[in-house]
Amino acid sequence: MMLFFISIDSFCQTSISGNRQSIFTIQNVQFKSAGATLSGAILKPEHPHTAVVIVHGSGQEKRTIEMASRLARNGIAVLTYDKRGVGESGGVYAGPEVGTNNIDSANLNLLASDAGEAVQALLKNLQEKRLPIGLIGASQAGWIIPLAAEKNNHVRFIVLFSGPMVTTLEQLRFQFYTNGNANFWVTHNEADARAHIKNDADRYQFSAINPLKSPEKIKIPGLWLYGGKDIQVPVGLSIERLNTLKAQGKPFGYQLFPMLGHNMGSSKSPEPFDTAVKWIKGISRISKKGRKTG
């Protein structure tokens, strides 16, 4: 059973963009998930049109207030939280920094449960109960978000920056091959990468997540955003598999930014973020139209 708490130390932030004023409140929250108390914050504009939970990528990530603020300034209510075992959140963190595997099936499913409970916490805090709620995240979140959406029917859309549509083991083969080389795509091509992903021996043995299993089951809209210079996720193969799902009638879309890399959601590259916000606003309009005619 999920418990939900709201702290009293909330405050209001105002930002000026041209002649338009955007105001949102920030409210600290705690919620329970799989035996741990997770801590975060809800950022809420005066008149939100949609709401999202930000799901972490890999690493010891705390709440992402910068990204949440950018979303809130665009009329999107946001819950962002410290990953389990990080910052003010309880639980045990899993990752290579502490000698454990953070991309095996057990940990990814656990993190998906955390994201699902975050959705419930956000829903309980919203006065606008009929707002469409989505999940947004980058990198490792590409495996976690579809798992969470499959388990939680309150999730109405998903947005992924550099989200892999390959198995966790395939991703490792590619990442070991590129070896952090920023010039990898100068000296290699798509055929090289695919041959290596297909034939390379695995350095680790564990239960791999199938990236198509959950997307095949969900029926909600999804947007994947990719950078053509990514050296952590095999973008060409991911897009091919997305096209397979689209051909099956899934309401999924993607956009490729050829000159960007893996961390394309940063403020230094505003175009992917702006594309995501525009798409989310489209979800809001569709939702409002459905409520008027439903």
Automatic annotation (TrEMBL):
Q: Which domain of life is it from?
A: Bacteria
Domain Serine aminopeptidase S33: from-to ranges: 47-169
Gene3D superfamilies tied to this protein: alpha/beta hydrolase
The record's Pfam families line, in alphabetical order, gives: Hydrolase_4
In terms of InterPro entries, this protein maps to: AB_hydrolase_Est10, AB_hydrolase_fold, Hydrolase_4
UniProt protein name: Prolyl oligopeptidase family serine peptidase
Gene Ontology molecular function, alphabetical? carboxylic ester hydrolase activity
